[in-house]
Amino acid sequence: MAKDGIILYSSKTGYSKRYAEYLAEELDYTIKPIQKANLFNVSCYPVVIYGGGLKHNRIDGLRGIIDGFKYLGDQTLIIFSAGLASLNDDLIKQIKAHNFPEFMSDAYVYQPLPGGLHRKDCEGNGPVAKEVALYLQKRDEHKKLTRGDKLALAIAEGQTPDQDRFDTSACATIIQAARCHV
User: Fold this and answer.
1) Which of 3, 28, 96, 135 is the least buried, fewest Cβ under 10 Å from its Cβ?
2) Which residues make Cβ contacts (< 8 Å) with residue 28, sequence separation at least 6?
3) Model pLDDT for residues 80-133, shown as the tens digit of each residue
4) What are the start-end ranges of the H helices in the chain?
């Protein structure tokens, strides 16, 4: 018997993957990294959950889900992002405007989740080392930095301790939406 849903994710620093694993266990769903998913095969699941990291109000890897939206018929589409900066209603509006085309306006549930960043992620070959180098360059050129950019720089430079805001209780909305739509 096929499971009721699938969770796809893209994860640079591990937070989206941790949330995806938690949700897969809670809901007893199949889980795959987006790179290993065939969206045509995904269309056989009644609930599709996608999660990716949030950077500059963009959800990493979401473009593939949106491009493949035509394969998703009557499925429930639930999307989450894991990000470093705290979000408010205005930022959530910006995230929706930057990530979701108008034709999807009523076709998904979106839930931002708290993420984090560790200094080791910012150094050497760390997953966000290139971004931190760009933030340093922007700062040196007196260009505008976002709150997330500033926080990443402070962590990279040791001015702020590592952030780890992984919080499974923040997944309650996702779990409820998934269970209501099966």
Assistant:
1) 28
2) 3, 4
3) 999 877 778 888 888 888 898 887 777 789 999 999 899 999 999 999 999 999
4) 15-27, 39-42, 62-67, 89-99, 119-122, 129-140, 147-156, 172-180
